[in-house]
Amino acid sequence: MSTVFIPAVLRTSVGGVKSLAVDGSSIREVVDALVAQHPALGGQLLTTDGDLNRFVNVYVNGQDVRYLAGLDTPVAPADEVRLLPAMAGG
Amino acid sequence: MSKSYADLLREARAQIREVSADELAALPAGAAAVVDVREASEWEQGYIPGASHVSKSYIEQQIEGIAPDRDAPVVLYCAGGVRSLFAAQTLADMGYTDVASMKGGFQAWKSAGLTFDTPVVLNAEQKQRYSRHLLIPEVGSAGQATLLGSKALLIGAGGLGSPAALYLAAAGVGTIGLVDFDVVDLSNLQRQIVHTTARVGERKVESAKIAINALNPDVNVVLHEEMLVAANVERLIAGYDVILDGTDTFETRYILNDAAVAAGIPVVHASVFRFEGQLTTFIPFEGPCYRCLYPTPPPPELAPGCSVAGVLGVVPGILGLLQTNEALKVLLDMGTTLAGRLLLFDALETEFTELKLRRDPNCPVCSDAAVEARKAGRPFQVDGVNVEAPFLMTGSWGAAS
């Protein structure tokens, strides 16, 4: 299982936890599994067409999946997946 | 057996190779480390271009910082060519294998009609105020003079802007611009340490100016009591060397990004939420810009600001200081900035995480095609489709969408 780090702004949608262990061999499978467990995440991560929202970045081991293979980026069991929404607070 | 000065000088001449001013001038730049061993008061009157300064009395302690390689060529000079001979003997004793002394010293250099530089001289009070900077070779009096001549713009005199304003002022950044339209509220004081209880109700820019000038009266504080919007952004940022983005709305952040890229001004970006912060430095066309990182803003319900979600007071303090560190490096052109890296801070875990950022080849603001389109005054397109930038550029840059 890969570890998905949940940023503070999305934590209320996952019961307040900081990270979750999620099964999946691609970002798409990981995101689908996350949304299946925590449906409230769906509207925050995905567009109505099922693509990643452009204001949420997804990183695998520190690399932005937009510059890898997007939702098709492979994920290995030991990988760290990080969801990163934009923040504005100053 | 005792030795006279003449004996010592004879021995030094026999041991140390001497070069003439013309020979030194003919060396290609960087071929030798040139070190001025005179006193600081002599150095201030002028020095050989490219030389480093270490007084003879500090030569043993400081030479390794300037010339770490003992087999690389070193040329010393003083005023007349005697002190540099003795200093060269010391270096030879320390194992330097290629040390020379310039014959006739700086007097001979000037007599030969060769050019010299005159350092920016700090006054006595400045030398004391900035002494801990002057002791760092990477800053020194030249770096301090650079800071005194630099202009930094703070967007927001709030949680991030407070530590930045105070430390930029303390560091002697000569001009600090403040953009903020708000007044000090009691609820600001849990983190906005540039303001005070007595100044609740006053304009934030005025309040911050009082604190800045109380710390360092040398600083010229420029007040812009207005909200940064598309119609004024180009005017507000013009002439600044670096911008610290400490606003709390996405709209302002995108407007600032677009205008700063167009003007070629680096922006040090930070944002905070509860226990977390994000930080990076956007250097136009060298690294990604804000739109490369986040192409579009989230809907408001997914991105509450500090006034709605709250923030631990120290988080903007820590992030604002890291912003200031980035700004000083940009101004002094030293070290490695966070350009191309996003630093995440988690106060609960005391954890820093670094993510790799890239320039988006289709960025509607900083990509080559976007710049071309902007200059030609036409919409930027990818695959024949207009790319919408949510906020419009004004003035000579025309509309970006």
Question: What does this protein look like?
Answer:
The complex is a heterodimer of chains A (90) and B (401). Helices cover 21% and strands 23% of the residues of chain A. Chain A is built from three helices and five strands, in the order E-H-E-H-H-E-E-E. Chain A has a five-stranded mixed sheet with strand order 2-1-5-3-4, covered by helices on one side. Chain A starts with a strand and ends in a 5-residue tail after the last strand. Chain B has 401 residues and is α/β, with parallel strands linked by helices. Chain B is built from 17 helices and 15 strands. The N and C termini of chain B lie far apart (88 Å). The chains are: A alpha+beta (90), B alpha/beta (401). At the A-B interface, strand 3, strand 4 and strand 5 of A face strand 10 and strand 13 of B.
Which helices and strands occur, and which strands form pairs?
The complex is a heterodimer of chains A (90) and B (401).
Chain A lengths: L1 E4 L2 H4 L7 E4 L4 H11 L4 H4 L10 E5 L2 E2 L15 E6 L5
Parallel strand pairs in A: 1-5
Antiparallel strand pairs in A: 1-2, 3-4, 3-5
Chain B lengths: L4 H11 L1 E3 L1 H6 L6 E4 L3 H4 L8 E2 L5 H8 L7 E4 L5 H11 L5 E4 L2 H7 L12 H6 L1 H4 L5 H9 L2 E5 L5 H11 L3 E5 L24 H12 L4 E5 L8 H5 L4 E4 L4 H14 L3 E7 L2 E7 L7 H4 L12 H4 L4 H19 L8 E6 L4 E6 L11 H9 L4 E2 L2 E2 L15
Parallel strand pairs in B: 1-5, 2-3, 2-4, 4-5, 6-7, 6-9, 7-8, 9-10
Antiparallel strand pairs in B: 10-11, 11-12, 12-13, 14-15
Summarize the structure.
The complex is a heterodimer of chains A (90) and B (401). Chain A has 90 residues and is an alpha+beta fold.
